[in-house]
Amino acid sequence: MTLPPDYLSNLLQLIFIVTIPQTLIGLWFSFVCLGFFPERLARRIVICGIVHSIYVDIPFFLIPTWAHIINFILSLYLLVSLIFPELRPKIKILVIVFVIILAIIFELFYGLVAQFFGGHDAVIDQFVAFKLLLFWPGIGVFALITGFMQWKKLHIAQQLRHFIIHVRSMPYFMLFLLVIVQVFLFIIFSSHIFVRPLHILTLQVTFILSIVLFIYMTIKIMQIIASARVEGIYQSQDTYINDLTRMFASIRGQRHDFANHVQVMYSMLTLKKHDQLRTYMEEVVKEIQSMNVAAVELPSPALAALVQAKVAIATEKKIRFDYLVHTTSLTFSSVTSIDLVRIIGNLVDNAFDEVVKLPESEREVHLEMYVHNNDLYITVMNTGKQLTDEEIEQIFNPGYTTKADGHTGLGLANVLERVHSYNGQISVDSDIDHGIIFTIKIPNSKHSRTKFA
After folding, report:
1. 3-state class of 364 per DSSP?
2. How far apart are CA 247 and CA 145, in angstroms?
3. How far apart are CA 286 and CA 98, in angstroms?
4. PANTHER family recorded for this chain (predicted)?
């Protein structure tokens, strides 16, 4: 194979002026965006960037553009796997995706700039000083932006990282792979415009594949959105039914124990222990009434059933569960019953999971719902440890959880999504005296026609 003229000189300039700085910034940018910082990150980024740049650039002037892109992606994945073995496969793919995104930005920017100097080939023939002045200012700007993002902790893809790690649905994974393929095709198009013109047949095939892939991705996205809405409804129904089942089981247990209560009260009456009898009867009556009070106080059947179910669960777990639902909130028409159940149910369940870690005497959860200035407010407070600023910042991220036993960490993320769908807001406060308080504010919509069931 005959090497192109000035091959070695152009190769060294490409490696040290463009590829190594670009790859180093790309890897750094990826980890900052994902909010993931393994041990000895800087050292390993340098090793990975230098080795990968040298390997990829050696055949750059000898192979077609599409082969170079494939070689770039596969070799980067292999090298990241070797240097960062603790990364999950999904995280490795995300790192590569962000490296590619930054590379595309570089290529588009410098491709446009190169047109003013006669194109890509003309830039290659320029002096070294010219290339330094052309490439390094832009690379420096991206380095400053990445450093600023790390300093301010602007991890723009951290939520995406949590979602990708915990998602188990095949359609989501397939859509993610299709996006990567679409990016690959886009790189080929950009290289045709700014780097090397492609053969007409290659360009036609790439264009057709891009159109077909775009149509298919659009259909898949619509299917995923539709199935996600249906799945959300079924999940809410399942939670609703499970809570009701536990409530009825608790009521059946109380009825089963009623005979024992009668025997105890009869024995106390026979022994003329009237004070003890009165105290015991008050406890029994209070326990029975707790299962029926919600149905009497709350005209909304859906809300009453939800509260009754939570009362039964609280009684079973020895939790003091208080609620205060103002009557004005029952006329609020901007939130559907199913979303009200999802929001309150997830918040209360999360509060129950926290307080069961405490001694029985300290287990308290309080729910309040009211309307103020035509806005619906829902607050859920529970005793417990004080959350750190970092925990509050991550608490709504999909997949983030401090619990075991198969918790997916999607409950609060679903609450946030539902609240935002109504243009609402949610805040978290935490201190030693009051515990953890979730406050939701949902504005009234004049166009809403749906009322509580």
Report:
1. strand
2. 55
3. 60
4. TWO-COMPONENT SENSOR HISTIDINE KINASE
Q: 200-270 vs 301-316: helix axis angle to the nearest 10?
A: 70
**What is the C-alpha R_g of the chain?**
31
Q: Is the pLDDT of residue 333 over 90?
A: no
Residue 242 counted as domain residue:
no
CA 419, CA 229: separation in Å to the nearest integer? 15
- What phi and psi values does residue 156 have, to the nearest 5 degrees? -65, -20
Per residue in 38-55, pLDDT tens? Answer: 889 999 999 999 999 999
Q: Examine the domain organization and report whether 310 and 422 are in the same domain.
A: yes
- The count of domains in the chain is 2
Q: List the one residue out of 410, 436, 433, 236 whose CA is nearest residue 354.
A: 436
The closest alpha carbon to 31, from 143, 142, 146, 117, belongs to 146
Is residue 185 domain-shared with residue 299, that is, in the same domain?
A: no
- CB neighbours of 133 closer than 8 A, spacing ≥ 6? none
Residue 250 lies in a domain: no
In this predicted structure, the answer to whether residue 295 has a pLDDT above a threshold of 50 is: no
The amino acid present at 295, given as its one-letter code, is A
257 domain residue, yes or no: no
C-alpha 338: how far from chain center? 22
Q: Which residues contact 154 (CB under 8 A, 6 or more apart)?
A: 32, 148
Instruction: Supply angle C-alpha 50, 55, 61, rounded to 5.
Output: 120
The token pair that represents 106 in the structure block: 């570089």
Two tokens at 27?
């890897």
Range of the domain at 81: 7-198
Last residue of a domain, one of 142, 165, 198: 198
357 vs 334: which has the higher pLDDT = 357
Which string of DSSP letters, residue by residue, matches 273-289? -HHHHHHHHHHHHHHHH
**What distance lies between CA 124 and its chain's CA centroid?**
44
